[in-house]
Amino acid sequence: MSLPPEKASELKQLIHQQLNKMDVHGRIREVLAETIREELVPEQQLSTEDLIKALRRRGIIDDVMKELTFVADLADGELTSSPKPSNFNDKQATLLKKSDGTRMADATTMLSICDPVHMVLIKTDIFGETSLVASYFLEWRSVLGSDNGTTNIAVELLGVGTESKVSVGILNVKVEVYPQLNQTLSQEIVNTQLALERQKTAERERLFLVYAKQWWREYLQIRPSHNSRLVKIFAQDENGINRPVCSYVRPLRAGRLLDTPRQAARFVNVLGYERASVIGGGGKHEQWCTLLAFLCRNKGDCEDHANLLCSLLLGYGLEAFVCVGTKAKGVPHAWVMTCGTDGTITFWESLTGHRYIHKPINPDDPPAVEQPKPLYPYRTIGCVFNHQMFLGNCQPSDSVELCVFDLNDESKWKPMSEEAIKSVCAPGATTSLPPFPPLCASVIDSSVTSNEIEMQLRLLVSEHRQDLGLTTVWEDQLSYLLSPALASYEFERTTSISAGNEEFQDAIRRAVPDGHTFKGFPIHFVYRNARRAFATCLRSPFCEEIICCRGDQVRLAVRVRVFTYPESACAVWIMFACKYRSVL
Q: Which residues form the CEP76/DRC7 peptidase-like domain (predicted)?
């Protein structure tokens, strides 16, 4: 049994973290230097066997194996590994075949690994704003035909979106196989393999395109009005390459970084929203980002958010689909839908984290029958898809409130062949995107960042009031009492459950003396720029009234709470408050 690509990627990440923690690479370099200096005669090449023997004599392999507990394949049976140490960020029990633990993959095996190395270049300005500069898929296997296991590759990086044909620079990449292979391949064999893969990829893409055109013709024959529906089969990525939309979605497990589907929805919600830039008029420029590019810049369009949320919900074992349609005023939009085992249809808005239960309206009911009033903002729906399925809406009306989401009824939803989708979108297919990388834990210290933003806001408020000729007196206790409210707001955003508000109100009543007035204003951001947040707050009349409060015995308070999520995404809650003596 071979590991699925997503499991293999996850295992590689775990082993890499453990090797870095134990500084195994540094110890190997020391052994290499010592072995070459003491044990090998001049001009003798260090073989893999020599390296393994030297590592065993010094106990390095034993140290590593003590930290990793594997289970052998006994009598062709498969057993799960025993629990890993607590400092090993394990995400699941790993299935492994029996191995002597010292065998390296040979050049032929590595040549069969067709996944490229995905490199993303981003730019961060002085305000912390990121922008995507380039995205490149590096074909690394030319190193397998190098005599010394090392090769240098000059890569021309092109821009993204509307600038995908414009060069942004040259990147020199040095690729090295370490430890060196016992036997390398000839460059002719490597080039032949790559040429065969390109030919195979081109043929698969051609066959899928032929099938997609035939599917579209059949779809239009059902009803001519289908031509105006938003049925999205292909979408351009950041490099301007057309890919089947199903390739942008794949089950993604968050490990221990996100515990529930609703927490995953909140994580996707706090990633920034930014429409693809367009030069000149002509409406919206459409650009779907690959997952790595989206996560690296921490912002994207509604399709990027929907693809990520759908991937996470699939990872949680839900039957999830990306929906493509329109919202108010006919604006194109994408959101996520899950189908419950009891037939319940739930819409997930990836930009806000809100959830809506769909209850269809029966247009044949008599007027006296009360119909459900939809709370969701969606108007029409053209198609739904995930990593295995694509279905076009062929019901008489594409209005969401009238649609029946029985996806197994081909009279209502026209499916694409799952085999055709698998040929170009399944993991390991040469036409598909590389395996999704595991999510990274946040590097933001919540307490430190909250305190820094709060101190900056205090300074900005004091300066602003000084310009107005007002003095500023801060009350630390009142500021502290605002904390439960901020925690309650974030909890409600994540779970849709309100809790803890009674205690907050009781504490405020006790802190505000008789004859005094209390005012508070909470606001939420997904960035950590205090000056930008303060400028936004001043645009609210309610917040400006608090910041510029005049009166007798005015005391001001501000509290900041940063809630961190994977990939250094964060939800920043700020609450300004004041209390003053009421004077008639």
A: 286-416
